[in-house]
Design goal:
Two copies of one chain form a homodimer. With 132 residues, the first copy, chain A, is mainly alpha-helical. Chain A contains five helices and two strands; from the N terminus they run ααββααα. Chain A has a two-stranded antiparallel ribbon with strand order 1-2. Chain B binds a DNA duplex (30 and 30 nucleotides) through α2.
DNA sequence: TAAAACCCTTGAGTGCACTCCAAGCAAGTA
DNA sequence: TACTTGCTTGGAGTGCACTCAAGGGTTTTA
């Protein structure tokens, strides 16, 4: 757990550029407890570390799963509470995983319907028959 | 295009039971133009047909793709406008299909991260090491 | 030194997709 | 007849995830 002396610190604009999240969103994430406490400069400006960027990347993956912000905040709380919450964290991720799997199934089904419909239209464009 | 004389007509409660959509949502769909005009009884109550149920099932698939309500309404308008809108309808569905495909990719990626993280926790539960 | 660029906070506003409410009409049952 | 159930409308309210505004401090550039 040693720490480099030349640790890079990023301003909020730099983090915005790197993550694609707006400054508004980054501040909001901190406000609602979705970020571990972010370091500040002597004048009170945020200075993000690479660790913060890693966390944001992970949060981005959780967001991509469709997990609600409330659940992501819950997860962040559990991380802050320490090692004894590992079981609950895993449960949260496992539940999310089940939801993602069923979402993928649902999307795949819908995709098949879309394919079918598009094929119909492809025929219609030539034959001129009516359709829903 | 022949029509049965014993055509089944459903009340809004029956449609609610069959589709899982609430009565509120069904009325709202009609209000915003997402339904073709629904038949009424002599006293003004809605009487849905099997064709309406088919349409709702299709709309359900579109919703499952993540298509916005605005786009679904646009699609419904195009259907009402007739056969000459077939090209635009197909474009709309093709755009949706591209979005669904990339959403599936995104979910699959996120799923891999989830799997990885859950595996880590599985180890942690035994070894007791700290983690994000 | 002055202007421009950047950052801060609190609190309000936005867009989406519903979801509910109030007031009232109509049909069926005791 | 009285009551219950089910349906109607227009409009207001809700929850989510941001997104923006106002007013002010700080840092960099000309």
């Amino acid at each position: 757990m040693s720490q480099s002396l030349t640790q890079t610190r990023y301003t909020i604009s730099e983090v915005e550029a790197r993550t694609g999240l707006t400054q508004h969103t980054l501040r909001w994430y901190e406000r609602i407890g979705l970020m571990p406490h972010v370091d500040r400069s002597h004048s009170g400006q945020r200075r993000f570390t690479d660790k913060d960027l890693d966390w944001l990347a992970f949060v981005g993956k959780l967001r991509a799963t469709g997990m609600s912000v409330a659940d992501m905040v819950r997860y962040a709380e559990l991380v802050r509470e320490g090692a004894h919450t590992v079981g609950e964290r895993r449960e949260l991720l496992e539940r999310t995983r089940r939801e993602v799997r069923s979402r993928i199934t649902e999307l795949t089904d819908a995709l098949a319907v879309l394919d079918y419909k598009i094929d119909m239209y492809a025929m219609k464009t030539v034959s001129g028959k009516a359709q829903q």
